[in-house]
Amino acid sequence: MNAPARGEYRTVVVGSGIVGLFTAYYLARAGAGPILVVDRGFLSGGASGRNGGGVRQQWETPSTIRLAREAVAEYRRFGRTFGTNIWFRQSGYLFLATTEAEKLRLSEVHGAVAREGLPSRLLTPSEVGREVPALSLEGIVGGSFLGSDGTLYPFPAIWGVYEAAQALGVEVRLGVEARGIRKEGDRVAGIVTSSGTIATTAVVNAAGGWSKEFSARCGLEAPNRPTRHEILATEPLKPFLDPMVVRLSDGLYFSQTMRGEIVGGLTVPHAPGTVGGMTSSPAFLIAMARALVGLVPRLRPLRVLRAWSGFYDDTPDGLPIIGEDPRLPGFYQANGFGGHGFMLAPATSKRVAASVLGSASDLDPAEFSPGRFLDPNRPSRPERLQLG
Amino acid sequence: VDLPPGVSFAAALSEGAVPILQRSVRYHRPRAPFCGTGACTNCLVRVNGVPNIRGCRYEPVPGDRIDSENAWPSPGHDLLGALDTVFWNGIDSVRGFRRPAFARPLYQWVVRRLAAFGSLPERTGPPPRIPSERIDRDIVVVGGGASGRAAAEQLAAAGAHPLLLDRSPRGGAMEGVEVRLRTTVAILPPPRPGGNRPFDLIAFGDGGEALRIAARRVILATGGYDAGLWFANGDRPGVLTAEGALAFEQPGRKPPFRAGILFGGGPRAAALLARWEDRFDAVVAPGAISPELARKGSELGLPLYPRSLLTRAIGRRRVRAVQIRGRGGGAERRLDTDAVVLAHRRLPNAQLLFQVGARMHWSAHPGAYFPDRSEGATSVPGLLAVGSVAGAPFSSPPTDQLTAVVDRALSDRSWPTEFSGGVPEPPSEFEGYYRELIGRSLPGGGRWTACACEDVGVSEILEAHERGYRGIEVIKRYTGVGTGLCQGRYCIPEALLLLAIQEGRPPSEVGYITQRPPVLPVPLESIAALPDPGEAA
């Protein structure tokens, strides 16, 4: 039932998360079919179905701010283009600083964001209190806020792109595992899957937390580092919290969903790798509960409904890896999003598709290309605002 | 008002009928206690400024302030109840409310305010100090039903000193057994390899007390629960599980109905009839009616309707009658009643087994997942399961399973943790039941609520299937079924059967949703009070 309909495709995308689906959609829209998407799991089973739904434009690097800004515009018109309601609510991202160093960092972010023409604001502690009256201001020395950032509901976004891609002729095969590459000469000639070998000249690695593993199966050493991040949801409450709140010191982030649940996480160290699976740990629950009741004391008696986890696909410089891998012509990387694939996918997947089609890219190869890690002496302009 | 002491809020308010305490989250349908175990959302009330307290378990004390949630002016008469009529065909949150674009913020504003039950906690006075404790025990038995108590007793007789934990407030002391009541084990991570006490059980008392237990052996005796059932208006006040009905049996209180319909044909239904023989007017069963139940029913002069589909509840605010239909194209019949008590199917309380990562096998009867059933071993080293949760309800003399579990718990030896998969089984009785009841499209006659916590309709599951979404994990994310406060206890087992029918494959291939910790919702302040591992008291 899962066997692909044809023996040959122009492009095969590995991974049916938001990055892979958007890539397939843009390729199909450009008329570059036939296209096949394979995923060994179920739709929304990876990080695309496990994230907190935050979409922000406050970043350190101008290129990321621009991509995020484009993604926000795409998500604003998502309902019209894709037919599902992602409940994209632009009620801002509030960053909190608890030290002078963090405050300085926020003002640098604010500078970068403002230079791109976005009306971000630096806040005093009392202004922070006005944004979210339930916050305890103890220890808070400042904040930054951008009202056009927001949150969305990830699932209908997946359904929307999944259905739109299929309507354009994209074939999506779930439960099919990509096992490696068949080469002719030094370039991609096919993909080996659990449903047999399929001829293709372009393979897109959009496997998220498993992209390093898939690169390795194709003989490529990749710098990606999958790390497990945990998240929890509480019982729903009537609305009291509008923006997404992010604290720099410990990576605590939380927002209130349309259903009223508080959904959020915080960084607790886990050994890298996907071996441990997507489980949750008592250490996270305790750290998260302590952080949350400290910052919002009124939430103390609120109940935790469930906790889960997913994989960030981190890279050494905090920037995603986008484009053809110079070591293997026909192999395209679309990964390394460091937990922010959902935020950026509408914009970055356009570039992935362009790269597959051989069109010119507006991305600086020094920042995004897979080849950037091959040169040990390259100048690096990292993105370190890997939170929320 | 004066409420009798030591009686739950829900029971105190029942005057021969279930009290309507709540309105549902989307359509503001009237809701009354259903499950009796503190799992469902039907009895949530605000107690002293704290939202979402289970009225079926909370025992009020003088001076308490108890408010209703999500209803105005009262749960019995709620103006927003009109939403049920306005959106008679359902609210489409996946595709609706998109246009016109300029109205989106307004839609969002309205929908956010309609969502959820309670509002931000507003506790007066200083925050309570949450007691917390970290203890080490050799053997922990989780669950104080018949099997759990028998296991603990045998362990004590053999010289061990087991700790027995149970959620319920009742259960007497036992010689040589440390018993802690009103304590729920909510989190059971996979054991850490190595060390004397690889298990890290996290439990919470009814008052929020936090308890962390390191243990060498864990015996899960979490028992079973009475399943829900899908039919038109199946969420009406007056429809309740057997446990939900039994929860009203408290000092000085009577069952909350006078002329109920008992739904079920087996031992569970027979036990209920024996207990409340003057409270039922008819017995309706999805399949055969057991000789024992039939005898008792005839003795009482009750009409018996074996092999019947329960198609619809009738009544605007509470159940006044039900409609049933004989299976295989039998006649429709209306039975007047003031309650429907579901005693047709016992399912295992297997959440902790899933959480800890035990390998589970599908069993068509009763349609649920179990660990290895014969000897109570599980695929997790050091973890045992006994009684109903392991497919072997308590019996006297003790089952072989109980004996094997006690022996293994006492021993220091390890045991095999690899089991062969279950043998292929015929489709379960309830798959056939739903095939006949629902088939490919939903009969009319009222709203078919699949998930009462989130007000998700059965039609939404059918629509998701129609659009090509497959497997319970995806259907859950598409519709929201199973994402409510009860963690899917009352909808996922039914959804599995319906999807098995729709997808044309066995329920075991439709899958199961990941059981995420905690088993039941736990206050943030209790989790925050948990000691770190290694801080032994």
Describe the secondary-structure layout:
The complex is a heterodimer of chains A (388) and B (537).
Chain A: E1 11-14, H1 18-29, E2 35-39, E3 54-55, H2 62-76, H3 78-82, E4 93-97, H4 100-115, E5 121-123, H5 125-131, E6 142-146, E7 150-151, H6 154-167, E8 171-174, E9 178-184, E10 187-193, E11 196-199, E12 203-205, H7 211-217, E13 225-234, E14 244-247, E15 253-256, E16 262-265, H8 282-295, E17 303-314, E18 321-324, E19 331-335, H9 341-357, H10 365-368
Parallel strand pairs in A: 1-2, 1-12, 2-8, 4-14, 12-19
Antiparallel strand pairs in A: 3-7, 4-6, 5-6, 9-10, 10-11, 13-16, 13-17, 14-15, 15-16, 18-19
Helix pairs in contact in A: 1-6, 1-9, 2-9
Chain B: H1 9-13, E1 22-23, E2 30-31, E3 44-47, E4 50-54, E5 66-67, H2 82-86, H3 104-114, E6 132-142, H4 146-157, E7 163-165, E8 178-180, E9 183-187, E10 199-205, E11 210-220, E12 224-226, E13 239-241, H5 242-246, E14 260-263, H6 267-275, E15 280-284, H7 291-299, E16 304-305, E17 308-314, E18 321-326, E19 332-336, E20 340-342, E21 346-348, H8 351-355, E22 361-363, E23 368-370, E24 383-385, H9 400-410, H10 429-437, E25 449-451, E26 456-457, H11 458-466, H12 472-479, H13 492-503, H14 507-510, E27 522-523, H15 524-528
Parallel strand pairs in B: 6-7, 6-11, 7-8, 11-24, 13-20, 14-15, 14-20, 15-16
Antiparallel strand pairs in B: 1-2, 3-4, 3-5, 9-10, 10-11, 12-21, 17-18, 18-19, 22-23, 25-26
